[in-house]
Amino acid sequence: MGDPAGEALDPNTDWYVWVHDKYNIENKIVSGDLPENGIDYWHLYREDHALAQSIGLNAYRLNVEWSRIFPKPTFNVEVGIEEEEGIKTEIDISESDLEKLDELANKEALRHYRDIIMDLRQRNFYVILNLVHFTLPIWLHDPITSRATNAKKGPLGYADPRFPIEFAKFAAYIAKNFGDLVDTWSTFNEPSVVTESGFLTRKGKFPPGIFNFKAYKNAMINIAQAHFLAYHVIKKFDKVKAYPSSEAPASVGIIHNVVPSYPLNATKKSDIDASRVVHHLHNAWIPNSIVNGWIDLDFDLKQESGEIYEKYKGKLDWMGINYYSRAVVKGKFNILKPLIPFPAYPVLVKGYGFECTPDSQSLAGRPTTNFGWEIYPEGIVEAVKLMKNYNVPLMITENGIADRDDKYRPHYLAIHLKYLEDAIMNKEIQLNGYLHWALTDNYEWADGFRMRFGLIYVDLQTKKRQKRASADVFSKIIAEGTVPDEYVKAAKQVLKLGSNT
């Protein structure tokens, strides 16, 4: 969004409603910045792609907005579904079902997305297409009603029982219409983030911003089912290899926010247990369900025979890892154990990881970002190691920093890539690629435009783009195929990496 004429406006998402909500703005749950004042990628994509080219980038990840393709409900297009004990295990979407969906689709938006992807292809980018990055159509999620009723009335979005099937229809339609252009698919971006921030945080920044553990469980289980169903229909309807080098017409993955979790006191059982809870819920629950077939239905961290679904095993062809910082955790006695069956209740310790004061220092003496996130580059290798146990190809799909003055970003980039480079050279990990977040400044959800993640600065008034110094650093690293020693030395000094805590 952000074009002066408003042609690119899409008011049909839950997030559009959420950031315009008067209560949210008055209570500072959201920034008050509005997406219609954004960078207008919709019209200026060629300029952004050319800038990406000039840096030396060769891969580009984007997603198709569900509500742009289907601004109106798709509930009336009925498809075949089978279940085992309440978990969906088969879906039948036919060509005639896709024809019915086609009647509901916004063809102009469809054509425009094809133009965007074609421009990337003509510039020799490898395109990764993601299906959902947080936002949902308003007809599938009414965040204000959900908040007001504590998820008793909806539509309830990720927690809505209709969610897995509706998502599968969307995935099938997109696979049919874009399979000739892309081979690498992602179903969701950061599913753990939307469920935790939406359903485990009172007055949370993400819609619907409530604490409802039952709705949280439903949302997680729905996402596992939605991915499973989409995995099948994408492979069914994408039969064309877009790139001659691809092993298959469709490789279906998920983009996962991975947060290494450490106990505050490594010898205290409650802290160790709490750290284990954070890892299980945030990092492991999703891949456990779609790789190992273990859907932890009661969220008690214990694998029981009734929770293993054979059909869900191996339904992940690759995984994207988004890494920003760590978590340091302490455990509290869990008085809610009959309802929330954790061995200890986790509390994120202030002063570490994501729980720091912006533009200061963490308790470990590390600089913090404009967002208040501790710069902890060691964790990126740990994040990859945590996921390599799932035995699927891995890629870093996000890694970046809110840094409006570009003070730390050049060093952040260099040191994270250096840690990865060393780990690859030492055969500790394998990676298929690294994508930085982000190419340009962006609308950072509830925090609006004040968090600047771009290698390229965008003036929101003129929409003019300008490279930051960090873009030149990234460009040199790409050109040399390694992180120059002088970059590493400078990064260690600026980021105060002498500390091992």
Spell out the blueprint of helices and strands:
Elements: H1 14-20, H2 22-26, H3 41-55, E1 59-63, H4 66-69, E2 80-84, E3 87-92, H5 95-104, H6 107-122, E4 126-132, H7 143-148, H8 163-178, E5 184-189, H9 191-199, H10 213-237, E6 251-257, E7 261-263, H11 269-292, E8 318-322, E9 327-332, E10 345-348, H12 378-388, E11 394-398, H13 409-425, E12 456-458, E13 465-467, H14 469-480, H15 485-494
Parallel strand pairs: 1-4, 4-5, 5-6, 6-8, 7-9, 8-11
Antiparallel strand pairs: 2-3, 9-10, 12-13
Helix pairs in contact: 3-6, 8-10, 9-10, 9-11, 10-11, 13-14, 13-15
Protein name: Glycoside hydrolase family 1 protein
Keywords: Glycosidase, Hydrolase
Family: Belongs to the glycosyl hydrolase 1 family.
According to CATH, the homologous superfamily of the domain at 58-257 is Glycosidases
Distance between the termini: 42 Å
**How is the biggest beta sheet arranged?**
6 strands, parallel
How much of the sequence lies in strands comes to: 5-15%
Shape: globular
Q: Please state the second-level CATH architecture of the domain at 58-257.
A: Alpha-Beta Barrel
Spatial ordering of strands, largest sheet = 1-4-5-6-8-11
Organism: Thermofilum adornatum
Keywords: Glycosidase, Hydrolase
Family: Belongs to the glycosyl hydrolase 1 family.
Protein name: Glycoside hydrolase family 1 protein
In short:
The protein has 501 residues and is α/β, with parallel strands linked by helices.
Describe this structure in words.
- InterPro entries: Beta-galactosidase (IPR053427), GH (IPR017853), Glyco_hydro_1 (IPR001360).
- This protein has 501 residues and is α/β, with parallel strands linked by helices.
- It has a domain at 58-257: Glycosidases (TIM Barrel).
- Helices cover 37% and strands 13% of the residues.
- It has helices spanning 14-20, 22-26, 41-55, 66-69, 95-104, 107-122, 143-148, 163-178, 191-199, 213-237, 269-292, 378-388, 409-425, 469-480, 485-494, and strands spanning 59-63, 80-84, 87-92, 126-132, 184-189, 251-257, 261-263, 318-322, 327-332, 345-348, 394-398, 456-458, 465-467.
